[in-house]
UniProtKB/TrEMBL annotation, chain A:
InterPro entries hit by this protein: P-loop_NTPase (IPR027417), Small_GTP-bd (IPR005225), Small_GTPase (IPR001806)
Protein name: Rab family GTPase
Sequence similarity: Belongs to the small GTPase superfamily. Rab family.
Keyword Nucleotide-binding: yes
Species of the source: Pichia kluyveri (Yeast)
Keyword presence, Disulfide bond: no
UniProtKB/TrEMBL annotation, chain B:
Main location: membrane
Domain FUZ/MON1/HPS1 second Longin: 165-288
Record keywords: Autophagy, Endosome, Membrane, Protein transport, Transport, Vacuole
Zinc-finger as UniProt keyword: no
Protein name per the record: Vacuolar fusion protein MON1
Length: 206, 402
């Protein structure tokens, strides 16, 4: 029925409050960074057009609130995602330790039927901060990524725009792969069995 | 202007009449709907939001969320969103759509919409936005006035050609004025519904599949699988669609009638639940066409339909008369299909506009809608309506299909 069209990919960004989820998205989409922290209320949504291997895609990025009080919206946000980006702050141990909980929460709330093959990406943000402040080493983060199923892992700086495009290109590729494995039967024209099926309504309208 | 937006339950855009910012709007709409679905106790569905300027109407027919955004003073057709939903179901059937979304909640439904489907959605939204489709507005079908004895002849001929594999049949003009409708007697427990036919008519009139240079193609026979959601949303009926040219000098010579452009084409619609019944239905269609074209009285009655001579003064700009028991209507040739008036609990409505008034009343089994000059005194409207009613009652068998 349909020709070549832009593929729409729903991407969710999750992680503790103040790890830089909104900054990552703003840097990726608008090329801007703001020092000022403003908590995301509920969620923010931004589109980004990309071309991946000659395919036109639009990423519908859902930047969610890290704060606990907005978590009741989880089910609404997570369902029907094509990829989930888990973000932590390399200078914040707690945000790293919570990555597994974010992942598990997502799998439950989004009702993912094949958790082993759902695409997650891990991003360690704020690598621009001075080395002494860093609490999670690359090695440690890599080990976690491997233990969760060899998840792609990137270290980024939303402030200095380091590795952002590279990370989101992998996000797009993973989401696209997830979207492309869908199989559905092209023969959609099953006939009505008039001897078995009742009409939906019995009153005659003509 | 009204905007109509359709998204999947996961917030992926499917269609928007006005496409601006649809990616962002889709996510916001999904969040609002889901907030009420999941975060309110007890769980509630959001129906509408109203502010000073606009009215936002929501419908959640899993796996789709549909919304309309209209100006606050606009005559809003309350069935708009279900009409759009029914159109989506008519393309693929409910079980097929459910199967896809149950397996893949992240499914991008735009993959299944062809350009022709988008054209039809645009056309439906255009009609709903301007309230200019009388079938949607009045939830009834327009008839072609024909002498009832001749209509009976057409009906008998149609019935005599019917086979067990033919479930429904329709003869209409190319602008969908109903001439005859056939229901298979052996399957008499199945019924056609106005909303299903309105979708079929929109598919025929708005997609390019049946046209060449904006004219309906008469030398091809089409075979279209369509799901009629109100009849049965579980599968498809196979539909033969054939247009027949009437403006042919050979018929005029044969029947010794003068050229007239009242009815230029006929439309034959035959429906079967069986995929392989095309040849059988094609034979029925051919025989039916022969009997319509080569019988002088029948041809003439369709080519030059009865004129409706309503007893109305010149101050009436246009009219629509609906037979509420048959769900059929007739209207003046110049009808501009102005916004349908909503009776709610009243039986008479008058609305004043700068150059005209709209008047509607319920009398017996009829609803009478008049567009009249502003200068017409309101005291005259009920007497005019009563004389229209008397005309309709005495000509009911010619005007409407019993």
């Amino acid at each position: 029925m349909a020709g070549q069209k832009k593929t729409l990919l729903k991407v969710i960004i999750l992680g503790d409050t103040e790890v830089g989820k909104t900054s990552l998205m703003q840097q990726f989409i608008n090329g801007k960074f703001s020092q000022q922290y403003k908590a995301t209320i509920g969620a923010d949504f931004l589109p980004k057009d990309m071309i991946i291997d000659d395919k036109n895609i639009t990423m519908q990025i859902w930047d969610t609130a890290g704060q606990e009080r907005f978590q009741s919206l989880g089910v609404a946000f997570y369902r029907g995602s094509d990829c989930c980006v888990l973000v932590y702050d390399v200078t914040n141990l707690k945000s790293f330790e919570n990555l597994t909980s974010w992942r598990d929460e997502f799998l439950i709330q989004a009702n993912i039927k094949d958790p082993d093959n759902f695409p997650f990406i891990i991003i360690g943000n704020k690598i621009d901060l001075e080395e002494g402040k860093r609490l999670i080493s690359t090695k440690k983060a890599q080990a976690l990524s491997n233990s969760l199923g060899n998840l792609p892992y990137f270290e980024t700086s939303a402030k200095e725009s380091v590795n952002i495009d590279q990370a989101f290109e992998v996000v797009a590729r993973c989401a696209l792969k997830q979207e492309e494995i869908m199989e559905f039967n092209d023969d959609y024209t099953d006939a009505v069995n008039i001897n078995v099926d009742d009409d939906n309504y019995n009153n005659c309208a003509c | 202007m009204i905007n109509y937006i359709i998204i999947s339950s996961s917030g992926k855009p499917i269609y928007a009449f006005d496409n601006n910012n649809i990616i962002v709007y889709s996510a916001i709409i999904q969040s609002i709907v889901s907030y009420f679905t999941y975060s309110t106790s007890p769980n509630q569905l959001i129906n509408s939001i109203k502010n000073n300027n606009s009215f936002i109407n929501f419908a959640h027919y899993n796996p789709f969320i549909l919304i309309s955004i209209s100006p606050i003073n606009h005559h809003h057709n309350p069935s708009s969103l279900s009409i759009l939903y029914n159109y989506l179901i008519s393309l693929l059937s409910k079980p097929y759509i459910d199967k896809i979304f149950n397996k893949y909640p992240n499914f991008d439904f735009t993959k299944l919409l062809s350009n022709s489907d988008i054209l039809t959605l645009n056309s439906i939204c255009h009609d709903l936005s301007l309230n200019n489709n009388p079938i949607f507005n009045y939830n009834s079908l327009q008839t072609l006035p024909i002498n009832y004895k001749i209509r009976s002849k057409i009906n008998s001929k149609f019935n005599s050609l019917s086979t067990s594999n033919l479930l429904f049949g329709l003869i209409t003009t190319s602008n969908f004025k109903l001439i005859s409708i056939l229901k298979n007697i052996q399957n008499s427990n199945h019924n056609l519904h106005i909303s299903d036919l309105s979708i079929l008519f929109k598919i025929i009139s708005s997609s390019n599949n049946f046209k060449l240079n904006s004219q309906y193609i008469t030398n091809e026979t089409f075979w279209l699988p369509i799901c009629l959601p109100k009849f049965n949303s579980n599968g498809h009926l196979y539909t033969l669609i054939q247009f027949v040219e009437l403006n042919d000098s050979r018929y005029q010579q044969l029947h010794s009638i003068s050229a007239n452009n009242n009815t230029d084409k006929l439309l034959i619609i035959l429906m079967s639940p069986f995929k392989d019944s095309f040849n059988e239905l094609k034979k029925i269609s051919n025989n039916l066409i022969k009997s319509l074209l080569f019988n002088k009285k029948i041809f003439n009655s369709i080519y030059n339909p009865l004129s409706i001579n309503l007893p109305i003064p010149s101050s009436i700009i246009s009219y629509t008369i609906k037979n509420t028991s048959l769900l059929q209507f007739i209207e003046s040739p110049s009808n501009s299909s102005s916004s349908p008036l909503n009776f709610k609990n009243s039986t008479i409505i008058i609305e004043n506009y700068s150059n005209y008034k709209l008047f509607a009343c319920k009398l017996s089994n009829y609803e009478i809608y008049l567009k009249i000059n502003s200068s017409t005194p309101e005291s005259q409207l009920l007497p005019i309506s009563k004389s229209i009613l008397n005309y309709c009652i005495s000509n009911n068998h010619h005007l409407f299909i019993q």
